[in-house]
């Protein structure tokens, strides 16, 4: 019997706190929809952004390799040890547990000695590139909350690309390029995360930080720096998360930047440690990865504070009368106004944007500013009457006024057609901005 695992487990939060001690617990502040508190006037609710706890997301992924048979050991092969390239009697054998290096070993518990790792077969077909794709799929939209860290057991690759998908693997975009020589490998100027500013945050860079040096013992990690990017808005110690959340609320590109459904590590050229590849002994060249860290939370559009893993599937526990894998739409019969994401900033500064039942009150409620009944920029007066802009008439301002005039709207369809676009633009504008801004827009128009 398997029980659904709540990602809101207190235990996982403790782990997060320990792992990120130098970052204050501001995170936790926003992680529940509301909590009970007291003021001088008595008990009250304090509201928080409605989102699940951040967690170790590698427990919930599926991993795919391309080419599929690139893992070493089938048939068994020998390769050179990492410390001493002249000792070439290490064996990889997929059929023997102690000598096998399957992909799962990139996600098991690390911290023991010796490490466990996935390993590719060696570069037997040199000079044909030794290219391997490692694809991690969640089948769920995830928001990253901490650096992606890949720890190599071999030397770090001389060329590599981290890619992401937002549409379940249908399309891919680069996240970051890595090379010993960015110009040579990707014709990109080398940069580091320290070159990035608020204005260039969405730029994709090539970095040489994580490729240089054939140093086994020291730094073996390749990173994608999430926290340094957060810090551009939230300050160096992430004290001001509200500032970051304010930006996330208003900037879709920024939200999407930290959002993924899949990641792909494209290994393009293994570490060689020398300018020349030793063609007589290609067993020295291969990829080996001991650990991959991906920390994040289910994206529930600020409409759920927990996410459940059941039957190998992550699902948001949607609130606010929303539904869908990411709480991305209103429930049936709750579609009285357009769906909209909740907000990172808590109530009262932000808004929950709850979905509203279709039939609220008797039908004699002709209109309602919240529910967008008046058309073409009409404004609802006392819920009984739409006050129409000069060009429109009708109960819901649905009719162009020229229709009633002698000669009609220019005597043909074209006149009417030319009057329609403003309404359409208003509607599409509203669906983008959400009902929060509705009042203001109607007045402006
Ligand atoms: C993987 O399979 C392909 C085609 O089936 C073959 O050409 C290639 O040599 C195999 N690679 C390894 C490392 O076994
Ligand atoms: C890896 O993925 C890229 C696209 O992301 C694709 O072009 C390539 O063929 C894939 N396979 C290998 C072995 O590189
Ligand atoms: C992905 O999730 C959807 C439901 O959200 C499900 O219908 C589909 O079968 C899943 N796909 C895979 C490959 O697990
Ligand atoms: C690699 O080189 C070492 C020493 O030069 C040699 O002993 C070993 O047999 C070579 N291995 C292969 C696979 O050629
Ligand atoms: C969902 O709609 C019902 C009315 O059917 C309402 O009572 C409930 O409060 C709504 N939920 C939220 C979170 O607003
Ligand atoms: Ca491992």
From TrEMBL:
Keywords: Disulfide bond, EGF-like domain, Laminin EGF-like domain, Signal. Gene3D superfamilies: Galactose-binding domain-like (2.60.120.260), Laminin (2.10.25.10). Residues 363-398 form the EGF-like domain. GO terms for biological process: animal organ morphogenesis; axonogenesis; tissue development. The keyword Secreted does not apply. It comes from the Eukaryota. Disulfide bonds join 388-397. SUPFAM superfamilies: EGF/Laminin (SSF57196). Residues 46-297 form the Laminin N-terminal domain. Residues 1-19 form the signal peptide. PANTHER family: NETRIN-G1, NETRIN/LAMININ-RELATED. This is Netrin-G1 isoform X4. It comes from Carassius auratus (Goldfish).
